[in-house]
């Protein structure tokens, strides 16, 4: 798991540069330890010499002016690769300068991986991630599509063809990158013509956008803008690496647990509609994904697991979808809102603790009691 820390060190450390204002990284240990330092600078049409000869090594280009989350993350990600490790970032719209750069993101009107050109604004561009995902890609999605496995394999310290790398590659796109692609391309989360019930300006794309120099700020210099873009790269990249770390530390082990428990449902109950977690873990999203992938039939109605604090057992109804409150089969209405002896008397099952008013969860003092509650609920 320390590989994520090393990747973070490599990606976010800065050194001073003429025409570039640097920021102090939040992790000073990383700044001291990293050999790969970041330079961000602008190159106007008349400043080709500074772009062409100022720095050694690779140079990655993106546009100057207002920035968005996709190119900030894309620049962060491409610098994690072996080919572009420690590359300078040149911010310009000058096509003559862009042509001299080793990679170009979010500008230039060209998508061509063989030439390391990753723009998505040109007419006729409809590239998607694939693997069942149909959201149009942004520059971040394009970089992740082509380099994501390399980045993840380095985190795991395994080869790119390792099974875990592929599973993480898909999961991180779904949980992190796809939303950035959709927001940058103006794709709504839901198919609806109704106005949203609330405004969400707390997501990553909004927070990156707020790092742009404010229009009231008297300093609108390229130096100020480049410093803000460095900060945007750190913000987007830091949250990406945190997502990778959490997936490696938590998601992968949880997936193994849920998969094994899903396969063994028939040993719990002949209906195969009751699943028992032999160790509690985040299971809800994983259950939906695995059931869909395995084309599970019948679908799981109840999941049993032990509460680690009380040591009692929970029987939880599975919702109809990950983002819905309705259950596939809620616990019986006549049980809802009851507790302890009153609930045990109604169910005829000893040791009952409670059933929630909505019927989505209940509890029993023992595993045997929770299993009986689930079996009885299936028959109602």
UniProtKB/TrEMBL annotation:
Bilayer-crossing regions: none
Signal peptide stretch: 1-20
Record carries keyword Signal: yes
Domain of life, source organism: Eukaryota
GO CC annotation terms, alphabetical: cytoplasm; nucleus
Coiled coil: none
UniProtKB keywords: Signal
Protein name per Swiss-Prot or TrEMBL: Metal-dependent protein hydrolase
Species assigned in the record: Zizania palustris
């Amino acid at each position: 798991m320390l590989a994520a820390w090393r990747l973070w060190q490599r990606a976010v450390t800065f050194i001073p540069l003429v025409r570039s204002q640097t920021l102090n990284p939040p992790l000073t240990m990383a700044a001291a330890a990293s050999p790969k330092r970041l330079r961000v600078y602008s190159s106007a049409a008349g400043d080709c010499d500074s772009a062409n000869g100022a720095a050694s090594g690779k140079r990655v280009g993106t546009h100057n002016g207002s920035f968005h989350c996709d190119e900030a993350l894309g620049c962060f990600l491409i610098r994690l690769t072996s080919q572009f490790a420690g590359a300078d970032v040149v911010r310009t719209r000058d096509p003559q300068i862009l042509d001299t750069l080793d990679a170009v993101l979010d500008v230039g009107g060209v998508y061509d991986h063989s030439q390391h050109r990753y723009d998505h604004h040109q007419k006729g561009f409809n590239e998607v991630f694939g693997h069942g995902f149909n959201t149009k890609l942004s520059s971040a999605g394009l970089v992740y599509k082509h380099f994501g496995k390399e980045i993840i394999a380095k985190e795991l310290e395994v080869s790119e063809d390792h099974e875990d790398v592929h599973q993480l590659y898909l999961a991180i796109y779904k949980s992190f990158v796809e939303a950035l692609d959709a927001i940058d391309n103006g794709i709504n989360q839901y198919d609806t013509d109704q106005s949203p019930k609330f405004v969400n300006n707390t997501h990553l794309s909004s927070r990156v956008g707020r790092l742009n120099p404010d229009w009231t700020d008297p300093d609108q210099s390229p130096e100020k803008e480049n410093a803000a873009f460095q900060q945007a790269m750190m913000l987007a990249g830091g949250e990406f690496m945190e997502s990778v770390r959490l997936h490696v530390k938590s998601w992968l082990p949880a997936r193994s647990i849920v998969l094994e428990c899903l396969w063994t449902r028939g040993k719990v109950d002949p209906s195969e509609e009751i699943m028992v977690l032999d160790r509690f873990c985040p299971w809800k999203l994983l259950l939906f994904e695995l059931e869909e992938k395995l084309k599970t039939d019948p679908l799981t109605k109840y999941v049993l697991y032990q509460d680690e604090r009380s040591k009692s057992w929970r029987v939880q109804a599975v919702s109809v979808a990950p983002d819905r409150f309705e259950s596939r089969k809620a616990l019986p209405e006549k049980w809802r809102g009851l507790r302890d002896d009153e609930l045990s008397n109604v169910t005829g099952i000893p040791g009952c603790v409670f059933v929630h008013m909505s019927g989505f969860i209940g509890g029993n003092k023992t595993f045997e009691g929770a299993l009986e509650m689930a079996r009885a609920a299936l028959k109602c």
